[in-house]
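Morning - NAP inputs below, output right after.
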Amino acid sequence: MSSAQVAVVTGSNKGIGLAVVRALCRQFPGDVYLTSRDPGRGQAAVAQLQQEGLRPLFHQLDIDDLQSIRALRDFLKDKYGGLDVLVNNAGIAFKVHDTTPFAVQAEVTLKTNFFGTRNVCTELLPLVKPYGRVVNVSSMVSSSALRGCSQELQQKFRSDTITEEELVQLMAKFVEDTKRGVHQKEGWPNTAYGVSKIGVTVLSRIQARLLSEQRKGDHILLNACCPGWVRTDMAGPKATKSPEEGAETPVYLALLPSSADAPHGQFVSEKTVKPW
Ligand code: NAP
């Protein structure tokens, strides 16, 4: 078994994830795994970083596929006995003018952004070693979508006692409500991406709370963040930040020093804790 530290970034064959891998290769004192659902796209990204003199490693990971997640889990367990840094970056968004029915957009978006990210956490969080760092890439859109929810939903999503099961039920209810055409009547905002990112931010708050309760003394820090508006295939060329600039906050959270005991369970933007 390797005694090296190890970092994993999901969805890192392009965009912000690739920039996070690039920064970690330069700053993280251990092995850095670029992961991609498509091995061809992943290997091409690894080759690109190698051209820059960096040495990322590669592992396949499709966060929509439980088998793929478990294969990575078993690999990390066998090779490293755990995991030091996890950046949950993989995500999708339909374009604003996409004509796919809203209920389909809701199901597909929630499947990857919320349920896929949650499955990665379920399988990999138990592997995270003491002083580990977990970063869930959410979005400022989660805050605006939260403000667009009914008072009742806002209260639930801001609760300090909401459980993961309750959150999962609410996310599933959103998808069902869109299928029945009643999501706005039921208090949801009209954004599937926004609701999926509410799920990511609230999931992070819950998981951080559980870590504090169940693994007290392990000094693991887990946070959600917004990278900003970043020029990637998702956000397009008009966005204000380069992928490297977008990577700054996730990388800051991934590399919080072992002496740090905060932030933890927070929503962080521009390296600053934001109110939820
Ligand atoms: P991007 O350029 O579209 O990259 C998304 C990455 O996620 C790609 O590598 C994609 O792989 C991967 N991915 C999608 N579904 C996956 C799955 N099921 N399994 C594994 N990987 C998957 O988008 P980005 O702008 O870099 O976004 C990265 C993260 O930042 C996302 O969570 C996004 O919501 C968040 N974010 C972005 C912005 C922004 O302005 N760009 C703002 C706020 C938050 P493929 O190449 O195979 O599709």
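Note: The two ends are 41 Å apart (CA to CA).

O.
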